[in-house]
Request: fold
Amino acid sequence: MSFGHQPVLLRETLALLGPKPGARFLDCTFGGGGHSRALLESAPEVAVTALDRDPEAGPRAEALAAAFPGKFHFVDRDFGRLADLPAATYDGVLFDLGVSSFQLDDPARGFSFRSEAPLDLRMDTRQGVPGWRWLETATEEMLVRAIRDFGEERHWRRIVMTLRQARGSGVSKSSAGVADLIAGCIPARERATSRIHPATRSFQGLRIAINDELGALDRALPEAFRRLAGGGVLAVISFHSLEDRPVKRYFRALCGQPQDAGDSTPQDLRHAVAAPLSRRPIEAQPDEIADNPRSRSAKLRAVRKL
Reply:
């Protein structure tokens, strides 16, 4: 793929979406355009509309539009605002959640905690405030929600306290500085034995909070399903449990199944409007993981609209 981009679970995604000649698809997370390009190449006269809120996705989309004139349309928009798009019906809708390779690999975006770059963490740098300013102004409740709930970090109390104490020191302006601050809150034995950087969970939580990622997903899923044609497929690729959990719950509700162990709704009150396309989430095969380690945590779920 162009620009070194490797779309995750590409074979499996195409198999589920089942593109046919003349089909219309909505790619809600354009990123590097790997999934969009594969759909356009999959069958004659396939059309793709793609969304992305990252301002740097635009130039990549222009190249794809030039390669497929009249068949590819890009919309500079967050998928959380999917309801604002003109009414249209699609044969398939795809979400590839999380951070794109381009965002991770660009130190200036602040998603990597291994570089001395400004802590930004925004997927759309034209909206909201950069991550360092968010850390300087967030309430304690907002920090707890980000680190404990979204980051699922066990040592959240110490990290929240340390981040608040560091305000005004200038440390929060650097991704590496904040990462070092967080790492110092993790017990030494745990740091020595962990397979991931000690700031990984906290950075995940901050990113989710700053970009309202879960809120956008909650708004987008029902709207995406509403725009599906009968027999159309809604597919979602997630990379951690906080993303996968609401997708799983929503899909089970669509299929007339209990959303979780606490769902006691009588079966005669459930109404199936979709059918699951796999019993369990689909994961990357060893060959893909070897070629693209970032696919290791990917999970693909899909349903077909009845």
